[in-house]
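Batch manifest, entry 17 of 40.
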Amino acid sequence: MTETPQPAPEAADDALKAELLALAREAAARAGTLLRDGRPADLGVAATKTSPIDVVTEMDLASEKLITGYLSEHRPQDGFLGEEGASSAGTSGVRWVIDPVDGTVNYLYGRPDWSVSIAAEYRGERVVGVVAAPVRGETWHAVLGEGAFLDGRPVRCRPSPPLDQALIGTGFGYIAERRAAQAAVVRELVPQVRDIRRGGSAAIDLCDVATGRLDGYYERGLNPWDLAAGDLIAREAGASTGGRPGRPADGDLTLAASPGVFDILQPLLERLGAWHD
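Output type: structure tokens
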């Protein structure tokens, strides 16, 4: 019996992408204003996740509630995947992937490098990404096939330098054993690059690759909401993104870099075991 070929998934048209972008930008702006202006002076930890130092604040929860409420009001049939528990399948083919505060520990301590990250997928393909960093006064966005932008201005990743002249960002998990393994990788990597930076928000780090403020960034242990918007923004800015060789960015390894740096750094991280604890 011959199987009937299945049609390819329908792609998002320009009108849908424009609608999703407008909604994502507005939701991120509203959440960013809430987080920046509504941060209590005595902000404390509301819960923990993977370890006692991997925290959730009351403002993470308030931000996610604001974002999902706003998006549901305008597109009630869409699905959600959110860090603080928002999860629903939806029926429209659109799913929103939300990190209401990326860089929660920075936010808890009053440091500026935290962000709101919102991505929209259509039938499993990421088509829109928005990352707002309110204290930095910056918002990045990208639409699949249309480039990446910072505050409305096009951005591109840096030309690829030799690895020993590359500034590389990274991050660390919150479980002691993983942090020890990640530190061992950094120890091997530091002599081979210009320097290492650790910002504390994966979404901002990916956008910093897009904007040319980093030559590359890698991290193990990210979740879909950590990387969804930033990965699209970096790719639309001309960066290469992925995970282990032949795989997309995922929880084992997320890597974004200017293409020449990516081609050298990916196999190096594989050899150094950056993808396991």
